[in-house]
Amino acid sequence: MDSLPDVLRQSMRYSLLAGGKRLRPVLTLATVESLGKDPEKALPFACAIEMIHTYSLIHDDLPSMDDDDYRRGKLTNHKVFGEAQAILAGDALLTEAFGLMAAAAKKEGLPAEVALTMIEEGARSAGARGMVGGQSDDLLSENRKISLEELESIHKRKTGDLIAFSVRMGAHFCQAEPSVLDALTRFAYQIGLAYQIQDDILDVTGTTEVIGKPAGSDIKSNKATYPSLLGLEESKRRLKLLTEDAKNTLMSHPGIEPSRLLEIADYLLSRDH
């Protein structure tokens, strides 16, 4: 990053290195491990995923979006660097992520078709048909009543698509067979929805100090959530069922060594932030 404007570099690093669970890159590396390959060689792809995710958080926190003051226990990017630099930092992280994917694919000697598939799926998962489209519908759902089906559609795109891409990218890196890719994709979408349900639960039951962002922000924004539609106990029941289904999806496929991915699923079920 030596050639970047100093304030832009600082803004990018501020959010990218702010900590957090690193769920998405960990899923990429755990998937590679589950398929018997060296996860260290997939590190650039995992980093690219985290760059895409971090860009989305910077933009989500902006006053025109969720208007949050804290993220991961620290002031949000725009509170430190201003809105303009925050927007540019997000733009830069997203763009650099795809360049990193392409450069890593060349370095590892991946077939061109595999590299192009990764980039195509990344664009779809992060873009208008995926995460961005889900965020758009999420904003439009504020202050109005929506169905459970609409809520699940929002979360599948807003959260699930990038989580699924994290797993699928690890599988593509290993050039996995279609049946293995299908099983891993089902697992990813199941834990992606479970992750979002737990987020909704923590917004009700957690504290700002523990979860690192304002508790009760969904209620403040009058957003539809699983607890608001189903109640807290039913939401917890669905969370547990989804997690068990996700684990069973992996354990039923002989081509996957699932131990690390199962640990991640269990962690998501019990996390408090």
TrEMBL record:
Molecular function GO terms recorded: (2E,6E)-farnesyl diphosphate synthase activity; metal ion binding
Swiss-Prot/TrEMBL keywords: Isoprene biosynthesis, Magnesium, Metal-binding, Transferase
Catalytic reaction list: isopentenyl diphosphate + (2E)-geranyl diphosphate = (2E,6E)-farnesyl diphosphate + diphosphate
Annotated organism of origin: Thermoactinomyces intermedius
A Pfam family of this chain: polyprenyl_synt
Domain of life: Bacteria
Organism classification: Bacteria, Bacillati, Bacillota, Bacilli, Bacillales
PROSITE patterns linked: POLYPRENYL_SYNTHASE_1, POLYPRENYL_SYNTHASE_2
Swiss-Prot/TrEMBL cofactor(s): Mg(2+)
Protein name per Swiss-Prot or TrEMBL: Farnesyl diphosphate synthase
Family classification: Belongs to the FPP/GGPP synthase family.
GO cellular component: cytoplasm
